């Protein structure tokens, strides 16, 4: 039997019901109505979920939750909305409690010798009520699972557990609560970056010293977790999601996910499962509760939430002091990048075969950590900017990459993943502009889109083009619109309005290359002023190797190729989704040293090949070596295809 105790809440939910004017003789039934229901929350919810697995000893409040007073137990309130066959939370409406001091929490708990004690410490008073603590934590030696919320690492209970039970204590906290506590852990860039930030904080943040000799599980949204066990650190992650993705994609919010994680985790622990399995079960249960929402009653759909762990959740050791850019692919178990790349092209991305993090932004897919972090940082900027109804100035972003890397496509797909209905794409090639009037006309098009109620995303391709002999000559003309959100036409100033300005490099393949040009040229072109107005940038890597140690280029090519075949030659796939392609042809696509024009060359080779009336991409479908020379070394491509 497991004992569960801690802070108890009464969670009120309310949802709207339509009027019944056709049959009702009562006026109030002719109007929109609401129904309300009081649910057990906090420790009682965790206990209720654990009952799905085992016997549970838990507090008794002696009455129905709805009959309790806020001076006794904290009451929370949430408004629901119908979603599918059930409900999700439309908005959380807040709490009510005693007018002063702590809630009295008049519950009774039977004394019982339990091998595991779960404490739900929500920071609402239980941590200071020593008289309500189970006697086992005062004199026994149980395994203690402490689910702790902000404010973290405070109170008599924490001090007692640190003093008396450090070896038998498992602490469950969230990354958001750690951030609130002062830990600088980045959000939604990459799993590797989150892990590295956490390690740094544990080694250097003095406010986390108490955790260094404990077993700690840090929940990262609903998509991942970190287990820090006295210096040994493991990262758990969902390959196709990043922190916050599931919440963003869900039809609404949901409460109780922390209780679901704790219940599933503890149940696995009581079965003698390894820590990896316990954490996977917890992540799975929390994510399923969000996906399912409240049932049609409405109530917690407990029987639908607690099933086997999602075997797609990956787990790797986090190195303490990695050399160079650490990636999940370089951590045990090591992946054969070439074999995985071939598998992706033929079968598509399978997380069981290749549990590497893959980011999806609309139709844009990448598995390269550098690109993931760059894209995520830009997307985060866009999301925040779109939430601002009255921004002072445009959002200005830099995009760099080799020719044919797909800069315009990448930015358009980032916008599509943020708000495809409101963001309007406008493309301008600065290298084709002849005078300032061309730029003014572009600004007018941006302004017109704003007046139409859209948020234009203006893509200024090759913004770093010269004007005549003057290098970077166009840069200075962007400074006023970037800073003040307006542009000059003659003696008149025109406001641009809410818009996103994207500056794509044409002569510089990376931001670092752009900012490290001749100092005199940079000074004359006012490049430092330009850079100071940017809010972010991304370097798009493209399909070719960046250096001799770049082992990810085949993976980048594989993801691009799979997408291209799906769009351009869907008839080459069999009923199970396998691509019918000659092994040698695939070898050439993946291994050729260079595509002369980046992604455009990969697409061109598919377009040039004879594929319309065939069921398999054979060697005979390839264009001649002379034609291929436009985009690759044609002779080499043919030789590689014949091997």
Describe the structure.
The chain is α/β, with parallel strands linked by helices. It has 3 domains: 2-21 and 30-317, UDP-N-acetylmuramoyl-L-alanine:D-glutamate ligase (3-Layer(aba) Sandwich), CATH 3.40.1190.20; 336-361 and 543-642, no CATH class; 369-535, P-loop containing nucleotide triphosphate hydrolases (Rossmann fold, 3-Layer(aba) Sandwich), CATH 3.40.50.300. 33% of the residues lie in helices and 20% in strands. The strands form 5 sheets. A 9-stranded mixed β-sheet has the order 4-1-7-8-9-10-11-12-13, sandwiched between helices. A 5-stranded parallel β-sheet has the order 17-18-21-16-22, with helices on both faces. The N and C termini lie far apart (64 Å). The model has no long low-confidence stretch (mean pLDDT 92). InterPro entries: P-loop_NTPase, Ribokinase-like.
Give the secondary structure arrangement, pairings included.
Layout: E1 2-6, E2 8-17, E3 33-42, H1 43-50, E4 56-57, E5 74-83, E6 86-96, E7 116-121, H2 136-139, E8 143-148, H3 156-164, E9 169-174, H4 175-181, H5 191-204, E10 215-220, E11 224-229, E12 232-237, H6 245-249, H7 257-270, H8 275-292, H9 302-305, E13 314-317, H10 337-347, E14 359-361, E15 364-366, H11 369-387, E16 395-400, H12 407-418, E17 423-429, H13 436-451, E18 455-461, H14 479-484, E19 486-489, E20 492-495, E21 500-504, H15 511-515, H16 519-524, H17 527-533, E22 536-539, H18 553-568, H19 583-591, H20 599-608, H21 625-628, H22 634-642
Parallel strand pairs: 1-4, 1-7, 2-5, 7-8, 8-9, 9-10, 16-21, 16-22, 17-18, 18-21
Antiparallel strand pairs: 2-3, 5-6, 10-11, 11-12, 12-13, 14-15, 19-20
